[in-house]
UniProtKB/TrEMBL annotation:
<feature type="repeat" description="ARM">
    <location>
        <begin position="111"/>
        <end position="153"/>
    </location>
</feature>
<dbReference type="InterPro" id="IPR000225">
    <property type="entry name" value="Armadillo"/>
</dbReference>
<dbReference type="Pfam" id="PF00514">
    <property type="entry name" value="Arm"/>
</dbReference>
<dbReference type="InterPro" id="IPR011989">
    <property type="entry name" value="ARM-like"/>
</dbReference>
<dbReference type="InterPro" id="IPR016024">
    <property type="entry name" value="ARM-type_fold"/>
</dbReference>
<protein>
    <submittedName>
        <fullName>ARM repeats containing protein</fullName>
    </submittedName>
</protein>
Length: 274
């Protein structure tokens, strides 16, 4: 079952992914210019000069500590504190280059998907966050990467990330999970089995302190993509979304001041109706 999402929504997904890009990229040299120079620092420096993707993948497991930055590199992700997290950050930067989509394939072919999924299980936030950002870019417009993520066991970790305290991380995990599950009904069932539907439905609630309703709009889109395609709904997923309590939440969103959210809620309610 393929992705039947409209081009307009795909463009919105791409714009959302761009919000996860790393800034302050020229600071990598600064981070490596202090403290003892270990073998992994030398390896990273050489890989940086040569754009050596395979070496960056190998370095993802490094625990060699690096200098901390004074300014944040990313809107929400923790700054790298080890060579491993820094290598994952570099893979995220490579995969964010829209004019060089071949880099996404090269990262997969070098074993990067498996290495990054391993980092998702890390207890260190810098490693986990860097992996989430990298995988979010790698999942955009690349079916083979999404299949590799599923095969590497990414979905349970992404669903766990959807429960986190950081809105940006929750959104990135949800977006990446969506890019995976739209590809196959088996993937949707795995997402549902691991509690993904419940998390998406929770995103429909508006925080009184929120300054926008992007989270709710994206959640509606993700739920639409889950329950079927442009031609038909799949009953088991329709029932799962309804059982998770989506109907009353969507009815509240019908009165949302944001017209895009209100319209999207109306449309999803129609699709969920018996």
């Amino acid at each position: 079952m393929g992705n039947q999402c409209c081009a307009g929504r795909d463009n919105a997904y791409k714009r959302k992914a761009q919000e996860n890009e790393y800034g302050n990229r020229g600071s990598f040299r600064h981070m490596l210019s202090f403290g003892a120079v270990g073998d992994d620092v030398v390896r990273f420096d050489r890989a940086y000069d040569n754009n050596d993707i395979a070496e960056f993948v190998r370095l993802c497991s490094s625990t060699c500590e690096i200098e901390k930055l004074e300014e944040r590199m990313h809107p929400w992700a923790a700054d790298p504190e080890t060579i491993g997290a820094l290598a994952a950050t570099q893979l995220a930067i490579f995969s964010s280059r829209e004019q060089e989509p071949h880099m996404k394939d090269e990262i997969r072919e070098a074993g990067g998907i498996e290495a990054l999924v391993k980092l998702l299980a890390s207890k260190e936030l810098d490693r986990k966050h860097a992996a989430v950002v990298a995988l979010s870019f790698l999942s955009v417009d690349n079916t083979e990467n999404c299949i590799a993520m599923y095969n590497a066991g990414a979905l349970p970790y992404l669903i766990q990330g959807m429960k986190g305290d950081i809105e940006g991380m929750r959104a990135a995990c949800a977006q990446t999970a969506r890019n995976i599950y739209v590809l196959d009904i088996k993937y949707r069932r795995e997402f549902m089995k691991n509690g993904g539907v419940t998390q998406l439905v929770r995103f429909l609630d508006i925080n009184p302190e929120a300054t926008n309703v992007y989270t709710q709009l994206e959640a509606i889109y993700h739920l639409e993509d889950l329950i079927g395609d442009e031609n038909e709904e799949i009953p088991e997923f329709v029932q799962a979304v309804k059982a998770a309590g989506a109907i009353p939440k969507l009815k509240k969103l019908q009165d949302c001041k944001d017209q895009d959210v209100a319209d999207a809620a109306n449309l999803l309610l129609v699709r969920l109706s018996d």
